[in-house]
Amino acid sequence: MLKTIKDMLEALEINDIQYCHWKSNEHLEPALNGDTDLDMLFLPEQRSIVDKVLNECGLKRFRSTPLMQYNAIEDYIGFDIETNKIWHLHTHYRMTLGEKHLKGYTVNPWGYKLLENRKKYDKRIYTTSYEDELILLLVRNSLKIRWRDYSKKIGKDDLAEIDWLLKKVDLDTISVRVMTYLNQESAKEVMKLITTNLTHKKQFLKLQKKLRQELAIYTGYTREYSWYKRTKREFYWAIGAVIRHGGLNSNKPNRRISPSGGCVITFLGCDGAGKSTTIEYVKKELSKKIDVKTIYLGSGDGSSSFLRKPMKLVAKRVGGKGLGHSVEEEFKKHKDDMSHISLKARLYSLAKVIWADVLANEKKKKLKEITKARNNGMVVLVDRYPQTEIAGYSDGPLISKYLANGKGFLYRKANKELNIYQLAYKNPPDLTIKLMVPTNIAIERKPEMTEQEIENKKEAVMKMNPSKNSVVIDTSVEMNESLGKVMNEIWKII
Fold it and tell me: Which SUPFAM superfamilies does the protein's record reference (predicted)?
């Protein structure tokens, strides 16, 4: 069991909060280890104290996007620093069930009955009684069936759960207990299913028909509106799945967001500091439960605009390490007589102006994307960030030297570039994480870099302050340790 889950359960008990884990108890252990979701039922009148206790335990409440919200169900997400795990808690204040993407029935009395009959599992967590859970499982499975499911077999997981419960229930007890939930006709169908060899979903149809009649009082949807809402939600869910699994970088959330709004975390670091590895890990972990967008704001091997892609290919072929430095030295040497400047140097300078202009426009567009995603409630992870502290280096302005001209074409381009870079400071990130390693380790990881290049990059990173919240994390330690520190800092601001 995760320590944070253990602490939460102890806090619930200390505060005399009535609860029970009400479904899928057959695989409760993975849920207690943070590998699957926890589904816990609470008394609606205790919601305020539940919110307070969960907040004190470090959990954060998230809000499902409108088309993914269900009545009386809320989302809490926790972070376990010992294991670097994100885990998910669904709080249920009413018994809401029904078809997938709809859950059209909210049966208020059932929640109180479940809590009355709860039991303590392994002296650690309260769960529903086996009898109550089996009744609910059969009811839930019958209400979930749609016309396209009639010919389908019951899923392996459902069969395993039913078999597990059948081995633990007392049939005499369940025959009495089912009458406290359902009328005689529905209860009779439940008992038939319990004594039947279940293989296909169509075996639940008789119970479904009885339940729809009996539970009609607990839904506010007409059949036509139910179909419309379910279809709309299912389409929305499918689009979200395509975006997530297809690696698409949407600016709109499709699962859940924080009520406090979105946030932007930017990652800076010298070569060899493990920036790419860290961002990839953070995205993978947070994306399990939260809508995350990643964006690259550098000029190197990351994503680039359509216009700059061919320019990058040309630069790799005709450019070379030290070319820019040699051109600058040539201009300094012949600053009093520009007629001696070589054609190669002139072409390079022109190309640099074009490159800087395209790059600045690209950054401006990406900054707008970041703002849109944050305003929509997403967590945005930014690789590198524009800065104005150091011109011509480390994501700083590239043609600022032309500002001294005071007028002319090159001056206007340089001024436009500077204005775009300054935009990054007007709407800064919520957190800047600076990943640093000793120079000798950075060279071991990036042998193509010189010691001086590493030192210059580290100095530039330490000078950059795009946001008020900034932390420096040593990534030369054990990977799990550094990733844990990064995740902990991010969790503070989400």
Answer: P-loop containing nucleoside triphosphate hydrolases
